[in-house]
Amino acid sequence: GQMYECYNATSLSAETLPTDTQSTKGCGQTIPDPKENYYTDDGVLIPMGHGVNANTQYSSLLYNEYIVYNTDQVKLKYLLRIEFNYKD
């Protein structure tokens, strides 16, 4: 379906989404480097790159977030466990 893109945390729900959208993408300041994307044999895009600046200066979100309100729209292909090592 169509995603509604936002750049700040919101309290949207399936009932309050803009017309003709079915999910929400929170656009973050850091994204996986598109140069390192991987495509599976069946065409699924897996973003595998190191974090790079998304040039989205007006976003309050650090990373991309995806919210799907109807779980029937989800076909899970992979699951990641990520550990962040922050520098002071």
UniProtKB/TrEMBL annotation:
Single Gene Ontology MF annotation: NAD+ poly-ADP-ribosyltransferase activity
Protein name per Swiss-Prot or TrEMBL: Poly [ADP-ribose] polymerase
UniProt keyword list: Glycosyltransferase, NAD, Transferase
Ranges where the PARP catalytic domain occurs: 1-88
GO biological process, one term: double-strand break repair
GO terms under cellular component: nucleolus
EC number(s) on file: 2.4.2.-
Record PANTHER family: DNA LIGASE, POLY [ADP-RIBOSE] POLYMERASE 2
Catalytic activity annotation: NAD(+) + (ADP-D-ribosyl)n-acceptor = nicotinamide + (ADP-D-ribosyl)n+1-acceptor + H(+)
InterPro entries tied to this protein: ARTD/PARP (IPR050800), Poly(ADP-ribose)pol_cat_dom (IPR012317)
